[in-house]
Structure formats: structure tokens, C-alpha cells
Write a structure and sequence with these properties.
The chain is an alpha+beta fold and about 190 residues long. The chain is built from 8 helices and 5 strands. The chain has a 3-stranded mixed β-sheet with strand order 1-2-3. It starts with a helix and ends with a helix.
Length: about 190
């Protein structure tokens, strides 16, 4: 028993992440961690998920992408590379690129330059899984400065299952932004 305790202590000091979790991440599997279990009764991302819009293609010109997303309320849009999810691009980044005279640049080039999403080739873009706590979505939104996050498959992060927005998260928690409340409700809150 003493040797087991010593081995456990040494392993915790040298390797904070369990070896099976590290190996599964290396193989591209995103399994729930041990820290995930105590949060079993909390709201999940799946409570706020919505259908993902048709992704922009990697080779679509910025000007055409901006025309396509212009009427949408989403502030970030999914981008696909060869029919596989590659990351999220902000509509403000598309507008800035057009204003800089880069309207003919492919969307994929902007996505690759976006360090907050990790770039398309790295597979390190901000994302959530449907079974994660809803608070995780808020944390990832804060880290990435995206108010729209992709919900991806645990087996393959390049499979887009839907998106979750800040408004969806607030609604799932029973709160809505004041701008979304009717005028009679706004008067009552003031």
C-alpha cells in the first residue's frame, strides 16, 4: 500500500494530466475528463445548441462571404475546408479585410491568420462539445473573444454538430439580454 501511495504521489507531481487522457487527445478523441463528473447535474451545451448555418468555403472571396453573412445576426461564421469544419471567422474580420482592400482574398487565408482560432491547420480553434457544462461555453467565449462557438463531435473536431451563441447560453440560464426583452419588460426593470 505504501508503494502504491508513493507511485501515485510521484505520478501526480510529474504528470498532472492522466496518461489515458493525454493519449486520447493525441489520437484526436476528446473524452470527458475526471473533473467533468462532479458537474453532472448542471446545464449542458446541448441545452443551448442551434443548427449551424451553411459554412463559408475556404476558397470563397471575402467580398462574397460578407455579402452572404450580411443579414445574419451571428457575429462569427463557420468555415469549411473540403466539406470539413476548419474554424470560425468573425464578420467584423471580414468587414475589416474588405475595408483594407482585400475583398478578393480567400476566407481561408483570414482564418489561417486568426491566432485566436488557432488557424485552420492546427485544429486548436475554440470549440465546445454538447455534453460539456454550459459554463464552459461562456469561458471559451471569453478566451476566444467569439460570441458564437462551434459545437463539434468528440470523435472528430472537424465534424460540426451545431453552434451555440451568447444569447442562447443566457436564455438557457433563464436570462436574456435587455435588448431582447419587450419594451414593457424594459420599463419594469428600470
Amino acid at each position: 500500500m505504501i508503494s502504491n501511495l508513493i507511485a501515485f504521489y510521484i505520478s501526480q507531481r510529474l504528470q498532472h494530466e492522466p496518461i489515458y487522457e493525454a493519449l486520447s487527445l493525441q489520437d484526436g478523441l476528446h473524452l470527458p475528463t475526471g473533473a467533468f463528473r462532479p458537474q453532472a447535474g448542471r446545464l449542458r451545451v446541448s441545452a443551448a445548441i442551434r443548427e449551424a448555418p451553411e459554412p463559408l468555403t475556404y476558397d470563397l472571396a471575402v467580398r462574397h462571404a460578407l455579402e452572404r453573412v450580411h443579414d445574419s445576426a451571428l457575429t462569427s461564421w463557420p468555415v469549411a475546408d473540403e466539406d470539413r469544419f476548419a474554424g470560425m471567422i468573425r464578420t467584423s474580420d471580414l468587414a475589416a479585410a474588405l475595408a483594407d482592400g482585400r475583398g478578393d482574398v480567400p476566407v481561408g487565408e483570414l482564418l489561417a491568420a486568426d491566432t485566436s482560432s488557432g488557424g485552420a491547420g492546427s485544429l486548436r480553434f475554440a470549440h465546445v462539445h454538447g455534453d460539456q457544462p454550459l459554463g464552459q461555453a461562456l469561458a471559451r467565449m471569453g478566451e476566444s473573444r467569439h460570441t458564437v462557438l462551434p459545437v463539434v463531435s468528440r470523435a472528430d473536431v472537424r465534424i460540426l454538430l451545431g453552434v451555440v451563441t451568447l444569447a442562447d447560453v443566457l436564455k438557457a440560464y433563464g436570462m436574456e439580454r435587455p435588448a431582447q426583452l419587450p419594451a414593457s419588460e424594459l420599463a419594469r426593470h428600470e
